[in-house]
């Protein structure tokens, strides 16, 4: 089915395009196993003058998400699109804080992958001991755990912890990334999560880990093509994964 043919009358073309793209990425997360029952979130700003954004309907798994059932909300959490479902307050607090205060945070992603959460529970956090973490020199911030993120007063502290970093390790909780595009946020989060996966396995082995010097991680981060706009900032990678989703189930476009 052509995605434009499925667009309902209440939805503008630019918003519909954003909905289709975001729904595709939810299916990518499902395909990769980056899911936590009906929890966690990927949010995307709706094109236009207002800071409205799309979030998953609370109650659906990622493989049930379609362009039409994503929920549009404002920075106060008011639902602005037809929806049979509510939104998860825990997701709204974190994502709205970033969308409201970081101008180029067009996409925010948050996961509870086993590897990401395991590293978030370690006092040292991310270790610069593998190929992937070496590409994240001075790119990761940390925010201390304050319990379930449903209290508005945590927003200011979370933003202060994040500073100007794109990646945030929520201690004892999980991983978060924000990017100028869906692909940009995905490339950042994938690299951090992959670094965590390797770190978890490395720490399970006998022997001493082999640290990488800051001079090398700084150079590796500078040389990495993963986040460079000149090389698509991850768009080619995300496009390839969406093609795989398309072959499995194109219903995300409905």
From TrEMBL:
Gene Ontology molecular functions: actin filament binding
GO cellular component labels: cytoskeleton
InterPro entries the UniProt entry points to: Aldolase-II_Adducin_sf, Aldolase_II/adducin_N, Aldolase_II/adducin_N_sf
Pfam families found in the cross-reference section: Aldolase_II (PF00596)
Residues annotated as domain Class II aldolase/adducin N-terminal: 20-200
Family annotation (PANTHER family): ADDUCIN (PTHR10672), PROTEIN HU-LI TAI SHAO (PTHR10672:SF3)
Family, similarity comment: Belongs to the aldolase class II family.
Record-given protein name: Class II aldolase/adducin family protein
Originating species: Paraburkholderia acidisoli
């Amino acid at each position: 089915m052509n995605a434009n043919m499925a667009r309902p009358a209440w939805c503008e073309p630019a918003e519909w395009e954003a909905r289709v793209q975001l729904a595709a990425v939810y299916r990518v997360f499902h395909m990769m196993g980056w899911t936590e029952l009906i929890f966690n979130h990927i949010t995307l700003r709706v094109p236009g003058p207002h800071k409205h954004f799309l979030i998953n309907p609370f109650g659906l798994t990622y493989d049930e998400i379609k362009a039409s059932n994503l929920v549009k909300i404002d920075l106060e959490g008011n639902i602005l699109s037809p929806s049979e479902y509510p939104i998860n307050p825990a997701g709204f607090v974190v994502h709205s804080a970033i969308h409201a205060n970081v101008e180029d945070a067009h996409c925010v992603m948050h996961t509870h992958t086993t590897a990401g959460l395991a590293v978030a529970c370690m006092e040292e956090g991310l270790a610069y001991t593998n190929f992937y973490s070496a590409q994240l020199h001075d790119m990761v911030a940390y925010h201390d755990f304050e319990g379930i993120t449903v209290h508005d007063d945590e927003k200011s502290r979370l933003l202060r912890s994040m500073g100007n970093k794109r990646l945030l390790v929520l201690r004892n909780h999980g991983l978060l990334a924000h990017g100028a595009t869906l692909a940009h946020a995905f490339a950042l989060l994938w690299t951090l999560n992959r670094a965590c996966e390797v770190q978890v396995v490395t720490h399970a082995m006998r022997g001493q880990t082999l640290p990488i010097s800051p001079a090398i991680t700084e150079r590796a981060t500078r040389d990495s093509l993963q986040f460079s706009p000149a090389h698509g900032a991850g768009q080619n990678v995300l496009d390839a994964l969406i093609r795989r989703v398309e072959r499995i189930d194109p219903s995300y476009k409905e």
